[in-house]
User: What shape does this take?
Amino acid sequence: MKRVIRNADVLFAGRLQKKEVLFDGTSILEVSDKVTADAEEIDGTGLTLLPGLIDVHTHLREPGHEQKETIATGSKAAAAGGFTTIMAMPNIDPFPDNVETVSEYLKRIREKAVVNVLPYGTITCREAGQTASDYEGLKKLGIRWFSDDGVGVADEKVMLEAMRKAKENDVLFACHTEDMNYRRPGASVHEDAFAERMGWLGIPSACESAQLIRDLELVKQTGLRYHACHISAKESVEALRRAKAQGADVSGEVTVHHLLLENTDVRGTNWKMNPPLRTHEDRMSLIEALEDGTLDFIASDHAPHTEADKDKPMAQAAFGIVSLETSFALLYTEFVLHQQRWSLEQLVDWMSYLPAKRFGLGKKGKIEAGYDPDLVLVELGSERRIKAKDFFSKGKNTPFDGWAVRATVRETIVSGRSVYRIGGGMTK
Ligand SMILES: [Zn+2]
Assistant: This one.
């Protein structure tokens, strides 16, 4: 069935234009001033049409930790936040490190997800940092991205072997770098004078940057396609900048919270995540790195937890915050509207086309004939407050509860079908 969106401001050819967009279940068929084809109409009056957002870093927790999130609730949260494709990190149980487990996992996703969900395989079996997973077998199932997110691969020899094997199979590594030699038990926030004053144990920046620097050396030796997850420290930015200048095939992401918050903003366990919020100087270096292309795009690191996981002393509480339902609205409000530092087009590129391009996700991230019909209609301008209790996600663990934002997702379309409508809920 063909459908047409009329009367919306469409992000087309790099700017907002009054256009009409015709699509079916497979692709966008036409973007023009007047679509004459016979099609079901969607009225976009007063709304802005964007390509569906894409997030390469989410935690859906299923299977194994369904009390925190499921494929259904996490993908609903994605749709409500304007995301049409999300990638799921592999720290679940059982770990997606072999063909049998991943086949089952893919079946679960097909049954339950309301948006496109692409899972990662693990770099090492069970994320134990000892033996490389079956990249060749998993690639035959369509898995072309591997991560041990949550932990770094500590042993350099294991990482080198894994990278060689990954290079042979032409797959990408997305790495959480963390050298545990730098992290004391109970460390929760960025290590500096502020943490000390608050009585919290700190995590130094070197915890992230030391292992990233090691990885980038191994990338030089192996030529692997490498992506650095959730860069938080200025030292890491410098390392990535050097590697790029030397021609390495590397990219990096920055999360929404590291763009918006600093270590001195921390008020409790809903501000605790790994890597932690760092200093003002770090945050400014992340923003500049995104703007100069050292960092390639934005991800959420959506990390849902139960109330009990968070309702603990700082040292014991779980790391991570939920963000699928707040990411776009927060960044649009702060950087496009308030600071007028970024254009809407630039923000959407960082949240859609650029991650799709780097991860080889096909014709995604643009509203153009021939692209996938993954679209989101948003209302820009009118103010609302973020209400964590209303999230589709099982996780309500956000530091942004009560923040005023000026962007609201009205309708999310995946493969040509409306999967979310504000007020009308969600359809699978
Ligand atoms: Zn991580």
Residues 52-358 form a domain with the TIM Barrel fold (CATH 3.20.20.140). The mean pLDDT is 97. The chain is about 30% helix and 25% strand.
